[in-house]
Amino acid sequence: MVITSRENELVKQYCKISSQKKYREHTGLFCLEGVRLVCDAIKSGVVPEKILITEKCLQKYHDELGNLLKTHDMIMISDAVAQKMASVEHTQGVFALVKMLDKTLDIDTIRKGGQFLCLCQLQDPGNLGTIIRTAEAFGINGMILHQTCDLYSPKVVRSTMGSLFRMPFMVCPDLISFTKELQQNRVKTFATVVNPKANSLVNCDFSGASVLYIGNEGNGLPEQIVDACDFPVTIRMKGNAESLNAAVAAQICMWEMTKEG
């Protein structure tokens, strides 16, 4: 049986979950689109609730999808239905609904040691996804998210290129209290700032348990968050640029946090 109606209830539910944060939270589900994301999710241990796929996609990407999907039921859809569900212009024709991830990070894990990143009020989905992807590449041990854009929006999920399924994270509603709790557990906290008087990033000691805070794309970290952290740190720049893109700044910081020697 092939779903050919764009008004099919499952198709409408998928589209609603894809486009509405509140409905994602209500259902506890989010959307995946594309061969790589669906395959990465399954390889990472995520069990899809539903997989919808076109005949054309199944034939074209049989080698990539064949073995992974043998143990998962697939719902066939028409190309027209796939176009309605798509969040990208040229869809590959495979979609999945999956449960929100159980990758919870906590104080006990952080205080045992490692390098962690705290993202505060980031609003660009592309930046958030890129940072998560880079964090996994550099071996960051986990991420704390405070008032960021929705982790499960299609653009964030797509930008992570599968790293979302493997990166431990926690959502923190009260960052001031959380920062104090970190410090009580002897976790070092570093606030990134644009201030020539701050400590140079390259001179910071990130050994042991360390959390580095990255702020909003336009305004940086709120002053009260900076004041709450142990050390203000800055990226020394030789050119005339006043600041860096949040994702670029985060990448530089993660390199310094995790570099060997």
How does this model look, in words?
By secondary structure, the chain is α/β, with parallel strands linked by helices. Helix content is 39%, strand content 20%. Helix 1 (9-19) crosses helix 2 (21-27) and helix 8 packs parallel to helix 12 (246-258). The longest helix is centred in the middle third of the chain and has 14 residues, at 125-138. The model has no long low-confidence stretch (mean pLDDT 93).
Give a summary of the structure in a few sentences.
The protein has 261 residues and is an alpha/beta fold.
Fill in the keyword field for this structure.
39% helix, five-stranded mixed beta sheet, 60s Ribosomal Protein L30, Chain: A, seven-stranded parallel beta sheet, 2 domains, elongated, 12 helices, alpha/beta, 261 residues, single chain, Alpha/beta knot
Number of E strands:
12
**At the third CATH level, what is the topology name of the largest domain?**
Alpha/beta knot
What share of residues are in beta strands? Answer: 15-25%
Number of domains: 2
| Low-pLDDT windows of residues | none
Number of H- or I-type helical stretches: 12
Report on the biggest sheet.
7 strands, parallel
The SSE order reads: EHHEHEHHEHEHEHEHEHEEEHEH
Structural class: alpha/beta
Measured between the Cα atoms of the first and last residue, the distance is: 59 Å
Radius of gyration: 21 Å
Backbone shape: elongated
Mean pLDDT score? 93
Which strand order does the major sheet show? Answer: 8-7-6-11-9-12-10
CATH class of the largest domain: Alpha Beta
Q: What is the CATH architecture term of the largest domain? A: 3-Layer(aba) Sandwich
